[in-house]
Write a structure and sequence with these properties.
This protein has 401 residues and is α/β, with parallel strands linked by helices. 45% of the residues lie in helices and 10% in strands. The chain contains 14 helices and eight strands. Strands 3-2-1-6-7-8 form a six-stranded parallel sheet, sandwiched between helices. It has a two-stranded antiparallel ribbon with strand order 4-5. Helix 1 (8-39) packs antiparallel against helix 3 (59-79) and helix 9 (230-239) crosses helix 14. The chain is globular. The chain starts with 7 loop residues before the first helix and ends with a helix. Keywords: Metal-binding, NAD, Transferase, Zinc.
């Protein structure tokens, strides 16, 4: 790694401090002005607004100009930096990995890596999960993942869950590639938005997986909070009849994060150390629109290369929050002229992963993992689970007599 004669890291830290100070002053100025603004007539308010917008010498204008200068400085620093990759494509990423510089790789993935497994993504017009939910007569597609609606009509979720439950689908080559990274000791962590648990089914150690939006690996009663056997949920999914808690008769929900619920504690606990240590970030099959997951792109260091393998170009990052974190505007992907570290492959995730594997000389190993995937008879597995649950319940009843 080349030295830093200009002290860019120090300058970036200083700009972050300056940005925080400017933002605080801006918030204070706006708060102190609120009472007076409410007393003005609409005409005076309009004049004042125009005056504030036109003036660069006023308090707000000064703060805005300072923020503009900070952003401009950040862009100048990035434009003058030497590239971290030989090329901003899969060849550049392959060369970087082969150089031995990538030893703590983080993979971020979304629904796009599971499409080839037969699981629809959420937002694709015509084929996405939300578009296909019309048959359930929902007030809106997202309602199936809302806790309030689940309480009223749990059957809608349980019917849908049969299409998503782990075991009904086979991991893709992309899932197997994540496992290959782990087998080579290169995977720091896999952060996934998916609830299908296909990373684990592909062989990735659960300790290396952070399911940001939860999954079907566990289940709890939404009333008393008691953990319930996942076999009970499997049996309920097969029958289409919602699972009830044997303690309080409350509804049992798989540990999937519904809208309005907080993300798992493990997500927040691991992100800080993981992304500080990361030396290569690979983002696969995600639109990067859901926060806080999308902001993780900006949590790696300035000297960490990033790769996006996706059907469409996305930016991600956290916008202004990236600046306040000390990462500058580089929190988002940058594929423009000032790019110094972001590689891009536009297309199918599996296609991109096969290309990357060939460039790395890993194609045979990846093919071996794909061919060795176990065949799972999901419905037979669920029926066995249902029998086990029924036998357990019968035994409990006899014991209580």
């Amino acid at each position: 790694m080349s030295e830093d004669p200009k002290g860019e890291s120090a300058v970036l830290r200083d700009t972050a401090v300056e940005a925080r100070k400017a933002a605080t002053e801006h918030d204070s100025a706006m708060a102190s002005r609120t009472g007076a603004a409410q007393a003005n007539t609409s005409g005076v308010q309009a004049q004042q607004q125009q005056k504030d917008e036109d003036s660069d010498d006023g308090e707000d204008g000064s703060i805005i100009q300072r923020l503009k200068r900070i952003l401009h400085l950040d862009n100048e620093l990035r434009a003058g930096r030497a590239p971290l990759l030989d090329s901003f494509d899969l060849q550049g990423i392959a060369s970087y990995i082969q150089s031995g510089k990538a030893k703590r790789i983080i993979v971020m993935c979304g629904a796009g890596i599971s499409v080839n497994a037969g699981i629809p993504d959420f937002r694709s017009p015509g084929t996405g999960l939300y578009d296909n939910l019309s048959k359930y007569n929902l007030p809106r597609p997202e309602a199936v993942f809302e806790l309030s609606y689940f309480r009223k009509r749990p059957k809608a979720f349980y019917t849908l869950a049969k299409e998503l439950f782990p075991g009904a689908f086979k991991p893709t080559p992309t899932h197997c590639f994540i496992n290959l990274l782990a087998k080579k000791g290169l995977l720091q962590r896999c952060y996934t938005q998916n609830i299908d648990s296909l990373e684990r089914q592909a062989g990735v150690d659960p300790d290396l997986i952070v399911a940001a939006h939860g999954n079907f690996d566990g289940a709890h009663c939404i009333d008393c909070g008691r953990e319930r056997p996942i076999d009970q949920v499997k049996a309920a999914v097969l029958s289409g009849k919602p699972c009830r808690c044997s303690t309080c008769n409350g509804l049992v929900k798989p540990d999937i994060v519904f809208f309005g619920e907080g993300l798992p504690e493990r997500f927040f606990r691991l992100t800080a150390s993981d992304f500080d240590d990361c030396d290569l970030l690979i983002v696969l099959g995600t639109s990067l629109v859901v926060q806080p997951f999308a902001s993780l792109v900006g949590q790696v260091g300035e000297n960490t290369p990033r790769a996006l393998i996706n059907k469409e170009k996305v930016t991600g990052g956290g916008g202004f929050s990236g600046l306040l974190s000390g990462r500058g505007s580089s929190s988002s992907f940058n594929f423009g002229d000032s790019n110094c570290r972001d590689a891009l492959f536009l297309g199918d995730c599996d296609e991109g992963i096969w290309q990357l594997s060939r460039l790395l000389g890993w194609e045979t190993e990846l093919k071996g993992l794909v061919d060795d995937l176990p065949v799972v008879d999901w419905e037979a597995d669920v029926k066995d689970s249902a029998k086990a649950v029924a036998a357990e319940e019968s035994s409990d009843k006899k014991a209580s007599l």
